[in-house]
Amino acid sequence: MAAGPILHSLFYVVECGIGQWRACCPCCAQRRRDLLIREDSSGGVLIACRQGCAPVHILRAVGLTLAALDPDDPSIPRRAPAPGWWRYPRPLIDGVVAKGEV
Fold it and tell me: What is the rounded distance in angstroms from the CA atom of residue 8 to the CA atom of residue 98?
């Protein structure tokens, strides 16, 4: 799991889908879970704060670098994330992604 080092350094982490988590942003210093973390299909990690914190500042606040977002295997080509990926979480139905949902 490529998101492991990031998830272990954040507070109040909850899983909200397959390969998706929410946590408190270390830059915002709020108790709401505004930080969204998702593993993409190439093994990389995408992070976004709803308050607008930059990913480099989020990672720096927990003592990591941007290299923590890269896939474990550099030979896998990395695709660009779909626009607005943080707005549409993939729902779970009995631990399986619902058909027709992305």
Answer: 28
